[in-house]
Amino acid sequence: MDAIDLSLLELLRGNARLSYAELARQVGLSAPAVHERVGKLEASGVIRAYRAEVEPEAVGLGVTALIGIVEDSGGDTDDVLEAFRRMPEIESCYFMAGVESFLLKARVGTIAELEQLIVRLNRTPGVASTRTSIALSTKWENRPQPVAPPFT
Amino acid sequence: MDAIDLSLLELLRGNARLSYAELARQVGLSAPAVHERVGKLEASGVIRAYRAEVEPEAVGLGVTALIGIVEDSGGDTDDVLEAFRRMPEIESCYFMAGVESFLLKARVGTIAELEQLIVRLNRTPGVASTRTSIALSTKWENRPQPVAPPFT
DNA sequence: TACAGTCCGTGGACGCCATCGACCTGAGCC
DNA sequence: GGCTCAGGTCGATGGCGTCCACGGACTGTA
């Protein structure tokens, strides 16, 4: 993991569909060299995936909500997590410090669907309570940090 | 925007580096047809970007925090937003319903950097107070919803 | 019905790209 | 020195991206 790897990561975070030839030109190596470096970054898990970022409204997911979850004292955290994992509306799941053990980001089409999701969450064994905040608009999301910090 | 477009979106959300030829095979069209459809999805803004998803720890960003912002009654929301936009640590920014006008997701390298970020946020004109929760671990993030809902 | 226009696809062509193997070079180590 | 290995370049080749000409389905109009 050197400066060239960091440039590659930055380029691919900006546009994941750049060709190896183009990446090679940008970092000043040959295409096969870049191919091998990117392959290693993928294999070692530094690059987790390549994703197209889709406008949520365009696929009928206009409602974004952030939901804090307070866990039941008796519940099994793994079971709760597994239940969350089975709910496709939950796009992100963070295990938090604080009273609320989890913070979920969910995306649904309508407020009615959000209501159903909250009901399902409250019924989930191990969940003591939920606290939902609705996002009126997403100013930006998953913005790549422009420069990677100095590296060891 | 028909069923084929939705399949293309789903395929590209799963792997943004699929070739047009491969996409064409999956949806049963020719490569040029897919090329044109994807081009239109990009032009119309349905596809916002293609991003490589990078393991944050691997680039020295091991600390994730979610920060709620209460706005000053006198402040200008646009100015506050602009100030946030200039802080690269802020990866996502939602405008919320509720007492806290914004929810920010920030990623930094160390707790010390988080402290500096919070100080900067509290000093920002228009910000009345902040409430920071630290994510101990990210269970998952930006998971693509498996199937797009029925479409009009 | 006939006709023209539009949309959206296919197939062919051509140049660039991905990818493989062979080879080169410098660093580290006996 | 000479071995080994990591990591690069170069050259070849098959597949891919992309442009263009063409054609069928649908629609509105005479």
UniProtKB/TrEMBL annotation, chains A, B:
Keywords: DNA-binding, Transcription, Transcription regulation. SMART domains: HTH_ASNC (SM00344). CDD domains: HTH_ARSR. The keyword Transcription applies. InterPro entries: ArsR-like_HTH, AsnC-type_HTH_dom, Dimeric_a/b-barrel, Tscrpt_reg_AsnC-like, Tscrpt_reg_AsnC/Lrp_C, Tscrpt_reg_HTH_AsnC-type_CS, WH-like_DNA-bd_sf, WH_DNA-bd_sf. GO terms for biological process: response to amino acid. Residues 1-62 form the HTH asnC-type domain. GO terms for molecular function: sequence-specific DNA binding. Pfam families: AsnC_trans_reg, HTH_24. GO terms for cellular component: cytosol. PANTHER family: HTH-TYPE TRANSCRIPTIONAL REGULATOR LRPC (PTHR30154:SF53), LEUCINE-RESPONSIVE REGULATORY PROTEIN (PTHR30154). This is AsnC family transcriptional regulator. It comes from Micromonospora deserti.
